[in-house]
Amino acid sequence: MQEMINAQNFTDFDKPNSTTICENYQPKEHEIGERIDKIAALAFHDYSREQIKTWLDAGELTVNGLPQKPKYRLKLGDTLQLKAVFIKQQADLPENIDLHVIYEDDSVLVINKPAGMVVHAGAGNWTGTLVNALLYHYPNSRLLPRAGLVHRIDKDTTGLMVIAKDHKSQLHLINQLKNKSVYRHYQALVLATHSELAKHRTITGSIARHPVVRTKMAVIATGKPAITHLDKIEQICDGVSLVSIRLETGRTHQIRVHFSNLGFALVGDPVYGSDRRMAMLAKQLTDDEKIQLNAFNRQALHAYELGFIHPKTGESRLFQAPMPDDLQLLIKTLRIV
Questions:
Q1: From the record, what ranges are coiled-coil (predicted)?
Q2: Which end of the chain is more exposed for a tag (fewer CB within 10 A), N or C?
Q3: Taking the model in full, what pTM does it have?
Q4: Per-residue pLDDT tens digits for 252-304
Q5: Angle CA(47)–CA(217)–CA(268) in degrees, nearest 5?
Q6: Which residues are CB-neighbours of 28 under 8 A, at least 6 positions away?
Q7: CATH no. for residue 46?
Q8: Are residues 114 and 41 in the same domain?
Q9: Which residue among the candidates 78, 92, 154, 269 is catalytic per the annotation?
Q10: Same structural domain for residues 189 and 270?
């Protein structure tokens, strides 16, 4: 889900020029007992500490072939093994991509992000991003870290985002995220009944990267604290509810992970979905209804309300975005089941 961005750690995202790396390092005697991230940064000094951390998180930098956390302390006989693809980068380029602007002034921009748009460049998505669009429509955004981004939402989640137009506004909004004064409200179709969800009005569970599947997140005791509130639950058919959700924290994939951890999942979620509950839903549907359900090939999640304190005026601002057509059609279909 949405994440706070440290303004001190912004770098340009680029198109790849990759090099395969395969290196080993045997820690010296005086390095035994030190954290792996510290020694790895010294051993593989051609790469940044941030890159080293990324490889550790991805399981591409291991100890004796096994993934370890950055805080792991080296033991006698340990060997660091780096097997990774290093992506050399070039600056993002402007691209003429349409933006659905909800609100705009000299300080901030509020947009309604469509499904399928990646917020910023990353593995497999080096063009066609929101950052590319911002650089085209707002050329001065090239002077800002990540073109003024303050937070992000998943590629196939729709809805509201606020973007800063100057450094001061960007820092102000980032601090609001840290202080939880940014109001974020979502709508989701959840594979669960009203009674099942009513037991979990507030969902807690620390989130970290999945220990095995590195492209996923998971509820893990040692992860970062995450809190999700269910403000309204409306059952629209047997086994599916439309839920209004309020985030207190903004961890990666937070809503999807929290529901999946409870055994529910969102309708259409390709990563955290529940095949068993989807099969139960499909049994209630006609052939035409099944076609419509299968055509909805993304998680049913929409960021419909966003509130924040305007960084220049100090006024509270609240914006709403209507549910996208594909989600409205799916709900209409399921209501008559």
A1: none
A2: C
A3: 0.75
A4: 999 999 999 999 999 999 999 988 999 999 998 889 888 989 889 899 999 99
A5: 130
A6: none
A7: 3.10.290.10
A8: no
A9: 154
A10: yes
